Amino acid sequence: MKYLRLVLVLFFVAVLAAVVLYGRGAFRVAVGYSAKQLCSGVFVAGLPESFVLDNDIGPRMALLGPARGALRVEADHSRGLARASFLGVSAQAVYRGAEGCALHGTTLGDSDLVPLADTPEADELPTILTDAFENAFAEPAGGGRNTLALIVAHGGQRWEQYREPVTPATPMQGWSMNKSLMATWVGMQAQRGALDPTRPAVSLAPGLPETSPTSRGGLDPRLTLLHLLQMESGLEFEEKYGPASDVTRMLYDARAMWTVPVEVGMAVAPGQRFAYSSGDTVLASYLWQQSLDRPYSDWIRDEFTRPLGLTALVAEADASGVQVGSSYAYLTARDWLRVGQLWLDAWHGRSPLLSQEWLRASVRARDSDPRGRYGRGFWLNTKGVAFDGLPHNLFYASGNSGQYVVVIPEWELVVVRLGLTQPGVDSGTAEFLHRIAALRPQLAAMAAEAAP
Prior knowledge:
alpha+beta
């Protein structure tokens, strides 16, 4: 009987320890997300603190259940930082001026806000577009769509609408649309001869470990930067947003995020399978930065922001100073549109910044994914896999919470949709695209009338 009691006690102690460890992992994700999103929402996007709490952090912290009341989140405007705490676990994100906010950062930058661009308000929508835009902003039963910005561009014409407090001057987080930006920036460096993405990754950055039969982790010496951008690295990286998953450890625990995908090691040989992975792009970002001759934020400003005429682009770094290429870029809706126009122009071979060869290769389906869903940093519509009934050469950048930049080359059309759509809620993007497709003859006529 004593032996049985001892076994039961040990069993319950083990269960309790597991619950505590799992719980603390979940708590770290909760406070990390809350601190980072509040810092960027307030200091980068210039949104009211209450709006970020009510429309971003609050809905996503519903997973805490009745204990959510114990979550404390606040912004310190005098010091340019945000803190979050929950049951003894805390996190801090600091604002670093032009480089945005860094989770777990300790070095404060210029705490003065980077001034938002003084841009004109949106023109009134033409009558033929009113229903399509109103439907896209309308809330479904139960709510949670939260469309905040929507733009259609065709033939030099632009039609747009916003939901307060978002305006044409508000930088908005693209989440995984940063992956499409990273593929673009790598392509720009490659066509200049500053970076060879076909070389083994371990040769692009000193000190990257190779796989070893005696230790976990390391990179296959055949792994290239192209494999990473194409989501066919073969890394054993878990893209599941749970408390102890690789992606949450990377985004909310690690100071140097790029080390996490290196540490998990290989599952299969590079090029064999498609597996969507933020870890792939974060590691790609680290390799891209090794090719630069100046700080990455200066390179983006000089080589990308200014040539495109962007008003605001904040590409945030982790605490080690590496741009979080999977997730943390902020642009206004109009600037996301300008980037979409770059991709459209490159597809047609008329961009001085990005070659047609690189863009066309980036929107070609890979053999590693039989469904043809992904290229090189871009989602695809191969055989209508994403948007049935729309052109198969449509490609798009996509991010968490319903972020889209959709390019339809044969129609000379770019659509930008930004929002804070809650999990499980339809963003309305597919329906909006089909409505716009039905209006295409009228839009072409309007663009022709406005042409000089």
